[in-house]
Each structure stands twice: as structure tokens, then as C-alpha cells.
Design goal:
homodimer; alpha/beta; Aminopeptidase; 6-stranded mixed β-sheet; two-stranded antiparallel sheet; 8 strands
Chain lengths: ~425, ~425
Amino acid sequence: MIPMGYGNARRFLAKLAGPAAPEGWQGGLPFQYRVGPGPARLRLKVRSERGAGALHPIWNTFGIIRGTTYPDEWVVVGAHRDAWSPGAGDNVSGTVTVLETARAFAALARAALRPARTVVFVTWDAEEWGLMGSTEWVEELEDSVNAHVVAYINEDDVASGTRFAAAASPSLKPLIRDLTHYVPEPGGHGTVYDAWLREGLSDTSALRLDNLGGGSDFAAFTHHLGIPSASVSFGSLNGVYHSMYDSYAWMTRFGDRGYRAHRAVAQLVSLAVARLANAPILPLDCAALGGELAGYVTDLDSNLAARHWSVPTAALLTALTRLAAAGQAFAAARDSALADDLPAVRAAQVNRWLMQVERRLTRPQGLVSRPWNRSLEFASDVDNGYSTMAFPSVNEAIRFADPSTAERELADLVNHVDQAREAIEQATAALR
Amino acid sequence: MIPMGYGNARRFLAKLAGPAAPEGWQGGLPFQYRVGPGPARLRLKVRSERGAGALHPIWNTFGIIRGTTYPDEWVVVGAHRDAWSPGAGDNVSGTVTVLETARAFAALARAALRPARTVVFVTWDAEEWGLMGSTEWVEELEDSVNAHVVAYINEDDVASGTRFAAAASPSLKPLIRDLTHYVPEPGGHGTVYDAWLREGLSDTSALRLDNLGGGSDFAAFTHHLGIPSASVSFGSLNGVYHSMYDSYAWMTRFGDRGYRAHRAVAQLVSLAVARLANAPILPLDCAALGGELAGYVTDLDSNLAARHWSVPTAALLTALTRLAAAGQAFAAARDSALADDLPAVRAAQVNRWLMQVERRLTRPQGLVSRPWNRSLEFASDVDNGYSTMAFPSVNEAIRFADPSTAERELADLVNHVDQAREAIEQATAALR
């Protein structure tokens, strides 16, 4: 996406005739937006690269600190390094967040405080060209990523304002939410949590973390392989995205004066990595996973009702409720095992099972619409790469297919949820 | 190892004085062998490569047929392609065995009979320089090899005579033994089994398959990662090993006239790959694994007795007996599940557990003597790379350490055997 200034845009938009644009498309320029076609004719000058000259090597960079106790469990934190524009926000901000986090962990390592798990600090190339750097890496090293990566933290355009926002796999949301209590808000006197609460509703239950859409480098980790992922950021309503205004000058004077959001996001990411890398049992909340997913069943119900299909979703709700209960039982067993000083070799076995939970909400053949998208938990909306769709195999059957396909997809999803629950139960058994 | 003709050898051996050589070192030359030192002085002319000129690229070659039903389960069959000498036996014979097997599977694939599992046909480079080609590949792709390889068949110097010999992981021995009933003996009128029986004792129980030592490319698969491996071959007592006599002329006139052993070994390997690639449940015999390993406990006992240590091995024997019983229970459950037409998705889950069984007889830190050797089941003898040692962690503690170390290693081994048994039990549960 390349934005255009309003002065240029009005020259095109004002000359469009035809039907009025839908209400949501009407922008701020002082005339009725219309959808065309014509009568304005647009000449687009395209400078394209062809042949061998169009091939460019891309480079991901890696810094690795090997874990002391669980070296085969990897926490990956990454940001794309390429940019459409000067990219002070998108994505110098994410890149320096990864570098600052690496600097903090390097200082700890020099002080003989190496993390228990291996931490991989990455900058990705060619994100703006289709998430290429991260996708190629995950695809090429799929077996290693599957075997080792316990969580992925993505940082993309993370400090263009002071308003906290985060998106995460449901199992990681409680961790992210908790961390906001420990970091000062950028430019204020309270914590990030306080500011979040102040800017949101006064009811804490309304402080929602988003789900991960398809617009950044977490996609290969979470939508392709089912690896728990998260992103934390501070933002604002501004128009600089992907434009020449996303510059050092803008960032310094308007976006993040004093670089306080940059500092806060690096602190949040460092804490997230520290918890993920050092907690003996991976801080993945399976009760939250089951609970949140159970909440999305009502959306399924209303999508089915809109089609006037009578397809029962009760089995899915039951399976997710049982998964949440298994998650609660696990958490209780975990807490008492940790109080009893769980040996590391036992913890590693528990973690191997925990790693399976969300991986089991994938299927090898992926979605009918997009085989690469193996997650049955979330996908980007096939019509909008930035937005998220829960239960995509079922929702796409509702949108594109028929009741019997939807029913079959529901049964398949229930089967995967049951397998994920079994992994939680195995994790609980491994605690003993 | 580079052999020397007797005419040259006698010029050195006859001039050695000093104490008489141990009985086992006395060779066929007509004088008393002595161990020196001197008085003969030997001038060895060494032409060594140094610097950049000493670095040579090595090349492994791969041919892959993707499986139809279980593409993520790989059967690997390989042979080293390099040689010390002309290498008609070592290892043109193994190389052409792999190529012939590939040719057979390619013909089947062209006839739309592709294998259910993926089959990988490999020729390794630099085996004679320290198993380099296979080791580098397995180490570099460790996660993929761990995730996918169900068995490895190695072919090294396999047709220098007509006497059948085979070595295999205990879980693969029943398969190999069975296949000998289906292949004609080279140059005879019966089967390979008949010839084996005739040349061996008349008691079939004496037809033993060897265990895998450290001298060829199976080492990275089985001793490093615990992947079931096997090797079948035909041989003879001959002196050409690693000499200039291991040539086309020798092979054609003496080693394998008419290339009948070559043909038989290719047939055996093709059958082994076909069974491994097509049986819905992997043909790994866990009862045989437990039974054979239980037999080696008496060797441990006598090694302990020789040291006059009182270290009890009863727990190991119990654990192995239970593993064998779990293997029998699995086999019974498998047979009835197969009779009921087990769905492929269920079979894949069973196979994932079966793949874990021997992998669980490894430990990440390996042996005290050699961390690379992760298998607790077998290792090459640290003093003789060609011979095999069962229970190496315990046996090396007996040889090099003290009773309490031996006791600790025994307890660790029992723990791994129990974990392997749990994998068998999970496989049984997955059948239902």
C-alpha cells in the first residue's frame, strides 16, 4: 500500500462519476465520493524491473544467545528491517526495539546471567514485499522452527505514538497484559496498564488485546505453523503510514518526542522475552486459549444464522470448554509442581507438550482457500490481509460453501481442539 | 586403514625385536612376531596437503520419491560413493545397490505405484575420511532427520562374495530376517535364507544378525540420533579390503562372478525399502528390541563381576522385559487394528510414537567418552571403531569409572528404557 497526499488524491477522486461510494468509503474531502468508472482517465507511469535486474538478494540477520537450561527451546523476537519509505516508524522503531532487547540480554550475558532458553534476535528483510524474509526462513527451517520455537514476538511500527496496543495468540494474552503493570507509560506518571485503562473504558474487562492479522512477520509463525506469537506497540492516529512523512523529522518532532514510546516498547519486549526465556514452565495460558476461542463460537452462530443454516456448533463449544478446563487443571498442577521445585528435565517434558497445544490447531492441508494457512484458529481475512478471522476453516465454509461443508469443517475443528486438549492433559501428566 | 602386501610387511615385521607379540597378533608369516621397539627403522614418506589446497568440497547426491500417503515419513537408503582404492567392492557395490533400488522404485512410480512413504536415495561422499558426508548431512538437518526419518538402510561393501551377512537395530532384525525368504541366493538354487542356514549352524536360532558398529554411514543415524538402521550384504574372506586389488578385475573374476551377489543384495534392499515405505504401521519390532537388549544384561553382569563390583542390574532387566511385553501387546493390537482397516491418519499417529521408541534410548549429552554418541543402546567400542558395544554408558562406566558411576548410569538407562516403553504404550493407545 502506497498512500497519496490529499492534494493529489482530490484531483482523481473529484473527477469520478457513477454511483455514490458506500458510506464507509466517504473520506474527508468536501465532495461526494463516487466509484466511477470515469470519466476521469488516469495515466499511471510504472517503472518496473524485469529480467535478472529484477532479482535482488534479501538478508535476514540473526543474533543468538544460547540458553543455559533449555537450549533447545527458542524464543524468537523479530522485526522487519526493510521499509517502503524512510520508515522511521515502519520499521526503524521495530528494528531498534529488537536491537535494544538484544543489547539488554547481551549485558545480562556478560554479567553471567544468560537466559534459560535460547533467544534468537532477528531482523527480517523484504517484509513489505510480502513477508518474504520471515516466510522464507520459517519455510526453509520448518522442521527446526517446529521443533524448537516456543514463541515469536514481532515488532512492526511500534512507537509512532503513546497509545498502547497489542495483539497476541490467546495463550499469550495474559502474559502481555501482566507485563503492562511493570513498565512506565511513555510520558506519563503511571504504568502502561494505567494509561491503557485511562484511554480505554474504565472497565478492565474491556482492555482487549487484538488477534494477529496477516500484515506482518508473525504470519509464518502463527498462521502457517501454529506457534504462539505476540506483538506490543504504541501508536496514534496519524497519516504517515507508508508515506514519505514516516521520517526521522516526523518521528522526532511529532511521532515520539523524546523517544519515550520507543523506550517503553523495548522495556515491554525485553520483559516478555525474559519471562518467555526464563519461566521453567512456558507462560502459555491454555485456560485463556480455551475461554477466548469459546467466545468466538457465538460469532460462528450468527454467521450461520445470517445464512439461515441449521448447523449445530454445540460440540465445538463443548470441546473448547473442556480445553479451557484442562488448561485450568494444568495451571493448578503446574503451580504446585513449581512450589515443589520441579526438576528441569521434567519441565522440559512439560514444555514439549505445551508447545504442541496450538500447533495441534493446525492441519497439514491448510485452508481450502489458502493451503499455506494451516492454522484453524486464526487467519487473515481472505478479502482483507490486515484483518483477522477466527475459525477460518468453518467461517470460509459458511462464506463460500454449503451447510454440509460447514458441518464437516466443524467436526474437523472439534477433532483438532480435542487433540490440543489431549496435549494439555499430557502436559499435566508430565508434571507429576 | 591402508593394507600392505605380505611381501612388504615381512620386511618390517621380521626386523622387529623386543617382547613377543600377544597371541592374537601373530600372523601367518613364518616367524615369531615381536612388538619392538626397533631395531628396524622405518622411513615413511608422507605427501600431505596443506593450506587452501588441502580443502576439498564433498558432494552428497539425493534422489527423492515423495510418498503418497505418509509423505512426512522418510525411508532413507544410502551408500558412500568415495573410495580409498578402485573400490569395486568398497563401495561401487553399495552405490549401484542404491541406484538399482532407485531404478526399481522409479519404474514403479512411472507405473503409478508410488510408495506410501517418501523414499530418499543417497550417495554419500567422504565416508573413508571419517563418515563425513553422512555426518554433515545428519547434523545440518538434524531437526528434519529427527522429525521425518523412520529408518535408514546403509549399503557399504555389500557384494564381495556370496556369504550373507546383515547388521541392524534390534527392532529391524525381524524384518531383515524375513526378507531373506523372498530372495534367491546368489548362484544357488534356494533362498538367501536357505544358504544362510546351510552356511551357519543347522539351528535357526544361531542365524544371528550383527549389531551396527561404528565403521560406516549409519553411525550418524543410529548412534547419534537413535534412528533404526540396517545393512545387508554378501561377503567372503578375502584380503582386498582397502587395497588396490579391490578392482573391477578382481570383482569380475573372483569377488562376484556374474554379479549375482550384487543382484541379490539389490533385491533385498528393494524389498526392505518397499516394506518400510508401504507398511501402514512401520515394521519395527519392539518386542524383539526388548528381548534382544534384555539378553545383553548378562554381559553387563559378567563385566561387573570381572571388576568384583556389586552393582545390581535387576531393574534394567525388569525394564527391558516390560518393554518387550509392551512390544508384544502393541503387535497384537496392531494386527487387529490392521484387520479392521486402520485409517491412514490414525496410522500416522501410531507411527509418530513408534519413531520415538529408539530415539528415546538416546540422551542429549551423549556418552561421557564421546558426547556425539547419544545412543545408550549401542556405540562403537571406543578402542575399536569397527566393533559394537551394547549399553555403552554403563559399560564405559564399568571400564573407566567406579561402581557408583556405573550405578548412576544404570539408573539413567532404566529411565530411558521406561520412556521408550511409554512410547510403545502410546503407540498402542493411538491404535484405538
